């Protein structure tokens, strides 16, 4: 099966998963650099705004690549996977005491 762009279902899944993972890791690094890794910084809602920006920034990229027709399940998958990788990467950076300079 392929959609109008000629991407097979498997390739579409690989592309979406890869972009979600990379966006989540990038959001974690940007959160650590922009907001910080202290206890006070980790309690800020700005880190969640950074995550939301990275989730929303993926959709234009998907259109450029040719992956479209997202349903509710696909949107939840993108948000969940991006959140998961953001949470893991930001937690590792915050608990290890890394200081990133923006």
From TrEMBL:
InterPro entries named in the record: EMC6-arch
Transmembrane spans: 12-35, 41-62, 74-93
This protein's UniProt keywords: Membrane, Transmembrane, Transmembrane helix
A Pfam family reported for this protein in Swiss-Prot or TrEMBL: EMC6_arch
Listed name of the protein: Uncharacterized protein
Species of the source: Halorubrum yunnanense
């Amino acid at each position: 099966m392929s959609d109008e762009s000629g991407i097979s279902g498997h390739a579409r899944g690989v592309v979406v998963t890869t972009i979600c993972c990379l966006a989540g890791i990038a959001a974690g690094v940007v959160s650590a650099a922009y907001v910080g890794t202290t206890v006070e910084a980790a309690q800020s809602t700005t880190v969640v705004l950074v995550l939301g920006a990275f989730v929303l920034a993926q959709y234009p990229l998907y259109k450029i690549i040719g992956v479209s027709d997202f349903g509710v399940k696909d949107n939840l998958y993108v948000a969940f996977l991006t959140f998961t990788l953001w949470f893991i990467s930001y937690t590792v950076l915050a608990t290890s005491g890394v200081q990133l300079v923006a």
